[in-house]
Amino acid sequence: MRFLPRIQALQRCSLGRYSNGNATLTAYSDAHAYPLALALFDTAVNMGVGTAIKLLQRAINDLLPTDKWVTVDGKLGRQTLIATKTLDPYKLTLRLCDRREERYYAIVRANPTQRKFLKGWLNRLNDLRREIRSKP
Fold first, then answer.
1. CA 134 from chain center: how many Å?
2. Whose CA is closest to 14, among 2, 1, 26, 4?
3. What are residue 20's DSSP bridge partners?
4. Residues with Cβ < 8 Å from 61, sequence gap 6 or more?
5. Which three-class secondary structure string do you get for the chain?
6. Which residues of 77-95 are buried (b: 16+ CB within 10 A; e: fewer)?
7. How many C-beta atoms surround the C-beta of residue 50 within 10 A?
8. Each residue's pLDDT tens digit, 18-33
9. Which of 50, 77, 113, 132 has the highest CB neighbour count under 10 A?
10. What is the mean pLDDT of residues 99-114?
11. Is the CB of residue 61 less than 8 Å from the CB of residue 79?
12. Where exactly are the structural domains of the chain?
């Protein structure tokens, strides 16, 4: 089997499901346009589906006026889906990446023993950002 760079592998996986042993993770990426589908899928693989959706919901709320905020509940319901369709997918994706970075630093603040993973987490995230910025 030929080696695929991580981003290329994620692009292929983001069309369907990610399977790891007995657990199958669905990131709901089919419901979103590129690059949001890729970023949401990668976030779900890295942090879990519920956390990925909560970060997406927080990113949505960052870009909407307060009277249009979505509920941050980790569920990809109608309200969240409609909001993702009304926002610029590029801006929303980059804001999701920012939210993800904030979470990494929060993890380290809460548990300094996790600092050893921070560089790897940020490298993964910056690879994703480069991929997003390389596609108009």
1. 17
2. 26
3. 23
4. 69, 70, 72
5. CCCCCHHHHHHHHCCCCEEECCEEECCCHHHCCCCHHHHHHHHHHHHCHHHHHHHHHHHHHHHCCHHHCCCCCCCCCHHHHHHHHHCCHHHHHHHHHHHHHHHHHHHHHHCHHHHHHHHHHHHHHHHHHHHHHHCC
6. eebbeebbeebebbebbbb
7. 13
8. 444 333 344 454 556 7
9. 132
10. 98
11. no
12. 31-134
Sequence letter at residue 21: G
* Residue 118 CA from chain centroid, whole number: 17
Mean pLDDT (the chain) is: 82
Q: Hunting for tokens 């007995």 — which residue is that? A: 22
To 5 degrees, how large is the angle CA 55–CA 57–CA 63? 105
Share of the chain above pLDDT 70, in %: 76
Q: Within a 10 A sphere around the Cβ of 122, how many other Cβ atoms?
A: 14
Asked whether 84 and 92 are in contact (CB, 8 A), the reply is yes
Residue 28 has a CB neighbour count (10 Å cut-off) of 17
